[in-house]
From TrEMBL:
Keywords (A to Z) from UniProt: 4Fe-4S, GTP-binding, Iron, Iron-sulfur, Lyase, Metal-binding, Molybdenum cofactor biosynthesis, Nucleotide-binding, S-adenosyl-L-methionine
InterPro entries referenced in this protein's UniProt entry, alphabetically: Aldolase_TIM, Elp3/MiaA/NifB-like_rSAM, MoaA, MoaA-like, MoaA_NifB_PqqE_Fe-S-bd_CS, MoaA_twitch, MoCo_biosynth_MoaA/MoaC, rSAM
Protein name as it appears in the record: GTP 3',8-cyclase
Catalytic activity of the protein: GTP + AH2 + S-adenosyl-L-methionine = (8S)-3',8-cyclo-7,8-dihydroguanosine 5'-triphosphate + 5'-deoxyadenosine + L-methionine + A + H(+)
GO molecular function, one term: GTP 3',8'-cyclase activity
EC nos: 4.1.99.22
CDD domains, per database record: Radical_SAM, Twitch_MoaA
Name of the gene this protein is made from: moaA_1
Length: 328
């Protein structure tokens, strides 16, 4: 098992397979002027399978596939099949915006995908368009219906933004009344391609979100969180689903973090807020052996920041990149 320098077991990889996305959510990326990387700059599927095999041998047993939007990358389904065959990988989860996902849900069920995180910031079609800059709500809703029909556990991720979708919080909660979904409201972060920080704007903290929900549902009560959970989870009596909040900017969950990240270009990150420790793509292409790569990973985890604030302070530049380039 991988253990970092703070005694935290590491068993979870977040792997971004592309920096491309078919939405333009303003809290994640600018509307125009995005310079997508040429394909040779990205990790190939073969390189990703090799990396996941190495990490599985080191104790990683859970992989989350992210982007960008993972399903805009061609041949993603054959890659997921190969990933599912790696010895030691017990869970494969996917984060998607749902625009292209609905027709693929039956195949995801066959592969054995453990759960899907569906990004959905509003149930109002016009507000969805204003946030994403694309009129794709019907396709995302079709994905939610397909996931529920095929009994794939669904977590709905909603980034809460003042003046944009805060009026949707309570209507999103209603989704959990009759559907077995996990709603997670996420604090807005500065990974928007422009460096704008939550403290520079009206900010919906995780506490403020829960206070609003409790004002309408005073019977809301805390439930036991899963080990290493990034969300604080709650239940409302007679609701089928659950409600949670993720303190992504407050960073209150860092003490139990079991995650490492690899960006589409192979940048190895021990924290969302750091700016990369080394580039595993480059080392693979320099013909380093599996054992040499394992040593690099181990050494990186022995110099891991205590939390997201320390990781941000270590950066050589301010947080300004788009979330699409680092894998969410």
């Amino acid at each position: 098992m991988l253990i970092d320098n703070h005694g935290r077991p590491i068993n979870y990889l977040r792997l971004a397979v592309t920096d491309r996305c078919n939405l333009r959510c303003f809290y994640c990326m600018p509307e125009e002027g995005i310079q997508y990387l040429p394909k040779p700059h990205l990790l190939s599927y073969e390189e990703m399978i090799r990396l996941c095999t190495i990490l599985a041998e080191m104790g990683i047993n859970k992989v989350r596939i992210t982007g960008g939007e993972p399903f805009v990358r061609r041949d993603i389904i054959p890659f997921l099949w190969k990933l599912s065959e790696i010895e030691g990988i017990q869970k494969i989860n996917i984060t998607t915006n749902g625009v292209l996902t609905a027709p693929l849900v039956p195949e995801l069920k066959k592969i054995g995908i453990s759960s899907v995180n569906l990004s959905l910031d509003s149930l109002d079609r016009q507000r969805f368009f204003e946030i994403t800059r694309r009129d794709e709500f019907p396709k995302v809703w079709a994905t939610l219906e397909a996931l529920l029909e095929h009994d794939i556990p669904v977590k709905i991720n909603t980034v809460v933004m003042a003046g944009k979708n805060d009026e949707d919080i309570l209507s999103m909660v209603e989704l959990a009344r009759n559907q077995n979904v996990s709603l997670r409201f996420i604090e807005e972060m500065p990974f928007n391609g422009e460096g704008l920080r939550p403290e520079q704007m009206e900010f919906w903290s995780y506490k403020r979100i829960i206070d609003l929900i409790r004002s309408v549902h005073p019977e809301l009560y805390k439930v036991q969180d899963e080990p290493n959970s990034t969300s604080y989870n709650y239940h409302i009596p007679n609701f089928k689903g659950t409600v949670g909040v993720i303190a992504a900017f407050s960073r209150t969950f860092c003490g139990t973090c079991n995650r490492i990240r690899v960006t589409p270009t192979g940048s190895f990150r021990t924290c969302l807020y750091d700016d990369g420790v080394f580039n595993v793509r480059d080392f693979m292409r320099q013909k380093l052996s599996d054992e040499e790569i394992k040593n690099l990973i181990y050494e990186a985890l022995q110099n891991r920041a205590k939390d997201g604030f320390e990781a941000e302070n270590r950066r050589t530049s301010v947080v300004s990149e788009s979330m699409t380039t680092i894998g969410g």
